[in-house]
Amino acid sequence: MSLQSALQELSLFRRNNIRKSQETFNKGLVVLKAGGTAKLGEEGWAFLEQLALASLDIGRIDIADQCLLQLAEKFPGSPRVDVLTGIRMEATESPSTVLSYYDELLRADSTNAAAWKRRISVLRRMNKVEKAVEDLNEYLDTFYTDVEGWLELADIHSSANQYTHALEALSHALLLNPQNPFTFLQFAETAYTAGDLPLALKMFLVVIDMNEVEDEDTIPLGISVRAWWGTKLCSRQLVSSQTSHESNSNTPVPKNIKLIDELATERVLTAYSGEHGIQARSLVSNWMSGR
Amino acid sequence: MSNNAVSLYLDPQIRDWVLFPITLVMILVGILRHYVVVLLQSPPKVVSKAAMREQRALTRSQILRATASNSPIPPSYYTSISQHLSDAFASGAYLKDGPPKGDNASAPPNPITDPAAMDGMMAGMKTQMVMMVPQMVIMGWINFFFQGFVLIKLPFPLTLGFKSMLQRGIETPDMDVRWVSSLSWYFLNFFGLNGLYRLILGDANSADSSRDMTASPFAAGAPAAGPQDFAKLFKAEKDNLEFSEGLHNWVGNDVENRVLRKYGKLAPAY
After folding, report:
1. B256 closest CB neighbour out of A178, A205, A249
2. Which residues of chain B are within 8 Å of residue A209 when distances are taken between CB atoms?
3. pLDDT above 70 covers what percent of chain A?
4. Per the database record, which ranges form the EMC2 TPR-like domain (chain A) (predicted)?
């Protein structure tokens, strides 16, 4: 692997926020050995940060320390390096030590968002979920536009079976990122788990509606298979039991629910018609007919 | 015309001792200024958590309102967020100093007494001084030593309209417009050297002074358009929120029919 191609790959990773730690580490080591950091100029520092994070990911703390040393020399007192040092400490020190380190950072500058987020993640790791949620709420009250934070909050709530709160957090994430079908899918699945079937059905349909590539003649792929399965699961229950379904969000059941059920059946079966899905098709059609 | 063109001879000494020095001095002063400004720059002010929360509270409701007519979230969630925000705005929960205690909160903050705003203004004044003083000194120097000098002849003809631009300081009605006076040469450099600075110092340099002439010292240090009365802004935003609540339309409202139509299960609506 030549130095040039490694550098190119690495800057691509940085730009697109790709984590691939092992690969980053291998390539980064080539650059580090060849002394490429000096040649990179300003970009060299971003590279060092990337390599430090990657080597922490795969447990090569020695390399991370090397990078950190160079960065700390160049930027003394930089909040970004401080947080990186914190991440390095998380790898070996006890959580309480790291926590007090982050506390100190936050006391110096209470708007250091990165340190705050790390602190919350450490709290969650220590199983202090209540404190983590409290902190995360306060964090999001200040930095409202952090989608990552809202998703994390939803995740914490879901893990504690508090689906209503999870849905609330997800609705903020949706407001901030309304073009992402995966957030809609997560909302739909959380609503399904919470038992709000009409809402879940609507949200699954929104995911399908967002997929502009798919139409009648194509085989559903990826996210839309999951969305069609979700639609099928919801509509199957809504059709079979005619009792009125309780919906916490007062979402009405669609009038032509039968048509939706038929369409969902058809689409799910279509998803299992390709070369890869054909073996499972009999299983799926069995399930479909056995209501 | 040709007779006219050779009517004036310039001593090469003028080129060596006036034209080049003026240009050189202006470039060097620009570079010096850049570094002085860099030195003068105070580190970015540390904003307290509460102040940042106050500044960003408006974004929350703006995001909510922007999505209202095609909202990704169902009505019950929308109204709960909207209600929560307008309650918070009404009670002043997002204000930096907490909810107002009496009715004395109506007075707008005075920028002169607010130390935070004063800092920003001082920073603007400081850079402004660094811009103005050297330029005044150079102009005085040129006016004192080289007043009325003709420095250079442009290699292309120009119309009479350029006379006032190129021959400032020389009051002759019939000299060819192509001759440039010392003061005009100063102004040409003053406005024209930015490209050179960008080449030497990089894009974000602060050597170009012509740009700062238009900037007011009061606006320079405070990009947030000065201190704002957030209490008033929040009150206004509350009304906007109520208005948007009426506009709310969930994307899921008619989604089943849209999907059914897309897959040909339902006749098209039109």
Report:
1. A205
2. 251, 255, 258-259, 262
3. 97
4. 102-191
Check B64 against A175: CB less than 8 A apart. Answer: yes
Q: Are B60 and A144 in contact (CB under 8 A)?
A: yes
- For A49, how many CA atoms within 13 A lie in the half-sphere containing its CB? 20
Instruction: Please give the angle made by the CA atoms of B227, B229 and B230, to the nearest 5 degrees.
Output: 110
Task: Tell me, yes or no, if A178 comes closer than 8 A to chain B by beta carbon.
Answer: yes
Q: Which residue reads 């070996």 in tokens?
A: A92
CA–CA distance, B129 with A96 (Å, rounded to integer): 51
Among A241-255, B207-221, B241-255, top mean pLDDT goes to B241-255
Smallest Cα–Cα separation from A184: which of A165, A203, A197? A203
Which residues share a beta bridge with B71? Answer: B250
Contacting residues for B178 by C-beta, under 8 A, at least 6 apart: B153, B154, B155, B156, B157, B158, B166
**Cα distance between residue B263 and residue A216, in whole Å:** 5
Give mean pLDDT, residues B109-123: 65
Average pLDDT over residues B242-254: 88
Pull the structure tokens for residue B166. Answer: 């190129």
Arithmetic mean of pLDDT over chain A: 87
Contact A202 B252 (CB under 8 A): yes
Answer whether A259 touches B (CB < 8 Å).
yes
pLDDT above 50: residue B246:
yes
Pairing state between β B150-153 and B179-181: antiparallel
ipTM greater than 0.90, yes or no? no
Q: What is the pLDDT of residue B220?
A: 42
A-contacting residues of B 32-71, CB under 8 Å? Answer: 46-49, 52-53, 56, 59-60, 63-64, 67, 71
Average pLDDT of span A141-169: 92
